[in-house]
Amino acid sequence: GSGSLNARSYILVIGGLGFIGSHTTLELLKEGYNVAIVDNMSNSYESKFTSIQSLAKQHWTAKGGKCPDLKLHKLDYRSPALRTILGRYVIQEPESSRLSYISGVIHFAAYKSVEESTRSPLAYYQNNVSGLIDLLVLLSDFGIQNFVFSSSATVYGSVLSKGGKPVQEEQLIHHETAHVDGQGQRMTLVPNVGGLTSPYGRTKYFGEAILADVALADPSWRLTALRYFNPVGCEPSGLLGEDPRQKATNLFPVVSQVLVGDRASLDVFGTDWDTSDGTAVRDYIHVMDLARGHVAALATAGARPADFAFRAYNLGTGTGSTVDQVVSCMQTAAKRTIPVNRTGRRTGDVGFCVAATDRARLELGWETQLSLEDCAADTWRYLQSSGRVAV
Ligand code: WQD
Question: Where does it sit, as one GO cellular component term (predicted)?
Fold first, then answer.
């Protein structure tokens, strides 16, 4: 036909060559889904595409099956050309109802630096919020309704008090209903969310509120927000690792820079938190577990009842680890010492942020399988394979 694909359904992965997007694309292919990636290449490399393809082919060869299809469209998801591309995937049958060949969309493409968002809020609102709105309008034109949105634990803000009473850090196990939740009721935008600490965090918060309102207006959608805690590690071959060349501010990439010699030492931000060893606690989730969470969310969305037309899920391990525990895990994996400076707290940090995991387990049938040690071992293997460490 006129450039139309034969009758197969595809998952559209926007930002599919990024750190989480590439791992999720690989998981989708291993689960037998055809994938169409849209990526503007602003924060990724074409070599990622060939790596995903070869890893997926290896998987299917070992299984004795046929590798699903993977396509790459190099363009910004906000470009008008996306409508033309969708037109090639979504076929309108003349007599029957629209037959959509995009059975689901995962949207990873967003700016994600907390610090940069404070300096350039308009760029963040334009890409992360206006971009989301325009994308949803486009998808509704094509009758595509299964949509997964990258959200973040940052929407929980730094809740310092509940019901006016100061809370101890340990109580900050975040449950989805603690905050933005569209379960059948109009979104309650809690006016002062603790201290939503950045424009970046607000773009995620507003994004979820938009999804919740769209779902309330038209419950035929299945809109899912996945709240990532701290994604780290990489798949075992190391081919999809997070490149330490970039300006790193997150803990694992900064420790990676120390290990490859790009930095002399790690600054530990704050040793006076109300935690086991005084350093801050986070919920570090292996990116492979995170990827599997996306596949589970896509697969279960259709079975959700109408008043779950919008639904948010934490993707975390439910276990917290301190900065010192991360450092000692990485030292064990790398069999070398990581020099640290113990300094003051970083602005905007909270001392404790860990996921409640029951909703994802009960409703997505998903839970994490990989440990902090796995994250450290996979990160170290990636650094070695990237030829950046003196063995
Ligand atoms: C983890 C812990 C730091 C660097 C951020 C974003 C959040 C989300 C995930 C997008 C903290 C400590 C860090 C260093 C340190 N991103 N640390 N020295 O801050 O939990 O979350 O990434 O959604 O929005 O805020 O992650 O890796 O920066 O910090 O001591 O050089 O490590 O204080 O306790 P964070 P992080």
Answer: cytosol
Q: Which residue in the list 33, 89, 111, 200 is annotated as catalytic?
A: 200
Amino acid (one-letter) located at 329: C
Largest CA distance in the chain: 69
How many whole angstroms separate alpha carbon 285 and alpha carbon 253?
14
d(CA 94, CA 227): 40
Q: ipTM more than 0.85?
A: yes
* 67/58 Cα distance (integer angstroms): 9
In terms of DSSP H, where are the helices of 9-158? 19-30, 46-63, 81-89, 114-119, 121-124, 131-141
What residue's CA is closest to ligand 1, atom 32?
Answer: 251
Most ligand 1 atoms within 8 A of CB, residue of 269, 329, 347, 379 to mutate: 269
Each of the 391 residues of the chain gets a pLDDT tens digit; together they read: 333 444 589 999 999 999 999 999 999 999 999 999 999 998 888 999 999 999 999 999 999 999 999 999 999 999 999 999 999 998 765 665 556 689 999 999 999 988 899 999 999 999 999 999 999 999 999 999 999 999 998 887 765 444 444 455 445 677 776 555 444 344 444 433 445 678 998 899 899 989 999 999 999 999 999 999 999 999 999 999 987 666 789 999 999 999 999 999 999 999 999 899 999 999 999 999 999 999 999 999 999 999 899 999 999 999 999 999 999 999 999 999 999 999 999 987 888 889 989 999 999 999 999 999 999 999 999 999 888 887 6
H and E: helices and strands count for the chain: 12, 17
**Distance, CA 28 to ligand 1 centroid (Å)?**
28
For residue 125, indicate whether it is catalytic.
Answer: no
- Compute, in angstroms, the gap from residue 154 CA to the centroid of ligand 1: 11
Ligand 1: residue whose CA is nearest its atom 10: 112
Q: Of ligand 1's atoms, which has the minimum distance to the CA of residue 154?
A: 24
Given a contact cutoff of 8 angstroms between Cβ atoms, the answer to whether 314 and 117 are in contact is no
